[in-house]
Amino acid sequence: MTMAGGAESVRLRPASRADWDLIRGWLGRADIEAWWGPRSATEAEVNIAMGSRHALCRMIEVDGTPVGYAHAIDATAWGDQLPQDLPAGTWDLDLFIASENHRGKGAGQTALALLKDEVFSTTLATAVCVFPSIRNERAVRAYEKAGFRWQRIWDDPHMGLSWFMLAERPKR
């Protein structure tokens, strides 16, 4: 999936095991940990997603260069680790832009829109959710722009207090 944003073209391509070293390197950076959580938890999350038939794992590319990672996974894969009031049929989305040169320029917003659209066009998902830390206002604002709405605060076992945000499947 591709979308042009200004002069740059943002594309999602399937992530593979060949991308693991790059993804793992990004997950170990302090700026990525602040956005997405502790390395041990995020490495496990990516491994689960990459091993699941019920996940979409994507490399985010700008003009053919990998700049980040994203995935969407049927939230039931996380078992009891998500809020009990999560609507049935919800998929959990996560992404980050690792390239500092591509932050704040729309690449993350475009990647989020592409991933959300892909989930709704290729699955029976009723909604998609995200759980940004309450300390990460930049992420919360980006998710709001993408149509996510605050549900409540949730105590994430890895990130601490987080916003439970939801975007429902668009009506046809």
The main sheet orders its strands as: 1-2-3-4-5-6-8-7
Which class best fits the helix and strand makeup? alpha+beta
* DSSP helical segment count: 5
Number of separate domains? 1
Strand content: 25-35%
Overall average residue pLDDT: 90
Q: Judging by the overall fold, what is the CATH architecture?
A: 3-Layer(aba) Sandwich
Pick out the low-confidence regions.
none
Largest sheet: 8 strands, mixed
Helix content: 25-40%
Number of strands: 8
Assigned CATH superfamily = Gcn5-related N-acetyltransferase (GNAT)
The CATH class name reads Alpha Beta
- CATH T-level fold name: Aminopeptidase
Order of helices and strands: EEHHHEEEHEHEE
Q: End-to-end distance, in Å? A: 21 Å
Anisotropy-based shape: globular
Rg measurement, Å:
15 Å
Task: Describe, in plain words, how this protein is organized in 3D.
The protein is of the alpha+beta class and 172 residues long. The protein has one domain (2-130): Aminopeptidase (3-Layer(aba) Sandwich). Helices cover 30% and strands 34% of the residues. It is built from 5 helices and 8 strands, in the order E-E-H-H-H-E-E-E-H-E-H-E-E. An 8-stranded mixed β-sheet has the order 1-2-3-4-5-6-8-7, sandwiched between helices. Strand 7 (149-156) and strand 8 (160-168) form a beta hairpin. It starts with a strand and ends with a strand. The mean pLDDT is 90.
